[in-house]
């Protein structure tokens, strides 16, 4: 038998597995690396987060990725080069982190790599007749496996698409396994570039569980800040938005898109929510004259209304607790806006559930890898075509 397959077989049979989860999101702030310890699988999963770090990306790397990210026309050679480069680069960042933590690569069983999304194209967005839902993550797993010497599972989203999903959100699987709680309706709200949430009903009825994207997130705020204030990457502590006042006409115009009417679950990305989207909304609402501060306040309000509107629409009057994660939870005006729009909702964060909110997405990918190795497909019930019952991840062997 192939020695590496034998090792994989051994890992699957171990009582405890050490898994590194990786996430590189739409914000391009850095690579999230979570070193996790797993015992069990399925609803018996026990996960301990041993270490976590975000390895920041430098300007050159951000520029390289931005040149192809969510663009319909790109230099195909760049995409080809980046696919290999990102894999190697991520391997280097993992090696550095392991060194800092004093952990040997031989003590890590597998890596779970999300890769870098460069294009997300659900059929509802691309609208090309005869073409399926599609999504593309680069940073090939073979380069990570060879660069670290660790078996790597990667490219989780393709199986989801192949089985009838849109390739996202994948959070539903890990959220269900790690955070479901009897008698408590939980909303796991992640505010990254794009905001998404998972509904975990307290009756643990899997057929009611779902995850969905709700719109931005930070992506439009980040893009606008970067355009208006070169050298600034995001509106740290809402400093800019707090100097402005939101414009109701602009907020309404930003919300004027069929995406917001579509049923859950649905997915989106900066392919839709980008600076052209903002320019069109400003033109339509005759708000091109607004100061950058007022536009920032309006974008902040827009994200809050989109998030709270989606929650209200799907949950009605039922009681629920919100557990925040993702960088947007550090934006005080955004959180204040969301709380004001959802009076009565309890808002906490995932640290209270034992997982740092910045680490949560990387932990979720580690959980998907654990399931791929030792789990069984979760059945979310009939009619859940968009939450397929599959195990995900492609295997790259380091020899
Ligand atoms: N102190 C802060 N004040 C305001 N915003 C902040 C702060 N800290 C982080 N953010 C926001 O969080 C973003 C990073 O969030 P995160 O790392 O969750 O995104 P991501 O994982 O790339 O996104 P996605 O989940 O959509 O892939 C930053 O770009 C910024 O907009
Ligand atoms: C295609 C893609 O990379 N989507 C990401 C993105 O970032 C947030 C939101 O958009 C979500 O749908 C997804 O990531 C999370 C981890 C998910 O799949 O659950």
UniProtKB/TrEMBL annotation:
<keyword id="KW-0119">Carbohydrate metabolism</keyword>
<keyword id="KW-0808">Transferase</keyword>
<comment type="pathway">
    <text>Amino-sugar metabolism; 1,6-anhydro-N-acetylmuramate degradation.</text>
</comment>
<comment type="similarity">
    <text>Belongs to the anhydro-N-acetylmuramic acid kinase family.</text>
</comment>
<feature type="binding site">
    <location>
        <begin position="25"/>
        <end position="32"/>
    </location>
    <ligand>
        <name>ATP</name>
    </ligand>
</feature>
<comment type="pathway">
    <text>Cell wall biogenesis; peptidoglycan recycling.</text>
</comment>
<dbReference type="Pfam" id="PF03702">
    <property type="entry name" value="AnmK"/>
</dbReference>
<protein>
    <recommendedName>
        <fullName>Anhydro-N-acetylmuramic acid kinase</fullName>
        <ecNumber>2.7.1.170</ecNumber>
    </recommendedName>
</protein>
<keyword id="KW-0067">ATP-binding</keyword>
<dbReference type="GO" id="GO:0009254">
    <property type="term" value="P:peptidoglycan turnover"/>
</dbReference>
<comment type="function">
    <text>Catalyzes the specific phosphorylation of 1,6-anhydro-N-acetylmuramic acid (anhMurNAc) with the simultaneous cleavage of the 1,6-anhydro ring, generating MurNAc-6-P. Is required for the utilization of anhMurNAc either imported from the medium or derived from its own cell wall murein, and thus plays a role in cell wall recycling.</text>
</comment>
<keyword id="KW-0547">Nucleotide-binding</keyword>
<dbReference type="InterPro" id="IPR043129">
    <property type="entry name" value="ATPase_NBD"/>
</dbReference>
<dbReference type="GO" id="GO:0016301">
    <property type="term" value="F:kinase activity"/>
</dbReference>
<dbReference type="GO" id="GO:0097175">
    <property type="term" value="P:1,6-anhydro-N-acetyl-beta-muramic acid catabolic process"/>
</dbReference>
<dbReference type="InterPro" id="IPR005338">
    <property type="entry name" value="Anhydro_N_Ac-Mur_kinase"/>
</dbReference>
<dbReference type="GO" id="GO:0006040">
    <property type="term" value="P:amino sugar metabolic process"/>
</dbReference>
<dbReference type="GO" id="GO:0016773">
    <property type="term" value="F:phosphotransferase activity, alcohol group as acceptor"/>
</dbReference>
<dbReference type="GO" id="GO:0005524">
    <property type="term" value="F:ATP binding"/>
</dbReference>
<keyword id="KW-0418">Kinase</keyword>
């Amino acid at each position: 038998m192939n020695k590496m397959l034998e090792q994989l077989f051994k890992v699957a049979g171990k009582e405890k597995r050490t898994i590194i989860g990786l996430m590189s999101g739409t914000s391009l702030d850095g690579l999230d690396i979570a070193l996790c310890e797993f015992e069990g699988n399925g609803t018996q999963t026990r996960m301990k987060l041993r270490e976590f770090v975000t390895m920041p990306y430098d300007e050159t790397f951000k520029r390289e990725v931005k040149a192809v990210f969510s663009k319909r026309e790109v230099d195909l050679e760049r995409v080809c080069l980046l696919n290999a480069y990102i894999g190697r680069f991520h391997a280097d960042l993992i090696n550095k982190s392991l060194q800092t933590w004093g952990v040997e690569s031989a003590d890590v069983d597998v890596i779970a790599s999300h890769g870098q999304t460069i294009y997300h194209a659900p059929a509802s967005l691309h609208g090309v007749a005869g073409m399926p839902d599609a999504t593309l993550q680069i940073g090939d797993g073979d380069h990570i496996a060879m660069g670290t010497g660790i078996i790597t599972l990667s490219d989780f989203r393709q199986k989801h698409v192949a089985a009838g999903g849109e390739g996202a959100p994948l959070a539903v699987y890990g959220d269900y396994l790690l955070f479901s709680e009897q008698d408590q309706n939980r909303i796991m709200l992640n505010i990254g570039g794009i905001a998404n949430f998972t509904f975990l009903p307290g009756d643990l009825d899997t057929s009611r569980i779902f995850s969905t994207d709700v719109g931005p997130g930070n992506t439009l705020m980040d893009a606008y800040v970067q355009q208006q204030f070169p050298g600034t990457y995001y509106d740290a502590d809402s400093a800019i938005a707090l100097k402005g006042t939101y414009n109701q006409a602009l907020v309404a115009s930003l919300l004027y898109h069929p995406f917001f009417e579509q049923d859950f679950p649905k997915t989106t990305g900066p392919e839709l929510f980008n600076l052209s989207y903002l320019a069109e909304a400003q033109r339509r609402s005759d708000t091109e004259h607004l100061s950058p501060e007022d536009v920032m306040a309006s974008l902040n309000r827009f994200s809050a209304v989109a998030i709270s509107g989606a929650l209200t629409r799907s949950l009605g009057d039922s009681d629920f607790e919100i557990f925040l994660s993702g960088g947007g939870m550090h934006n005080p005006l955004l959180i204040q806006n969301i709380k004001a729009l959802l009076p009565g909702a309890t808002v906490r964060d995932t640290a209270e559930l034992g997982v740092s909110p910045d680490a949560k997405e990387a932990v979720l990918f580690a959980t998907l890898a654990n399931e791929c190795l030792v789990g069984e497909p979760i059945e979310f019930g009939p009619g859940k075509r968009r939450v397929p019952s599959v195990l995900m991840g492609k295997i790259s062997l380091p020899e």
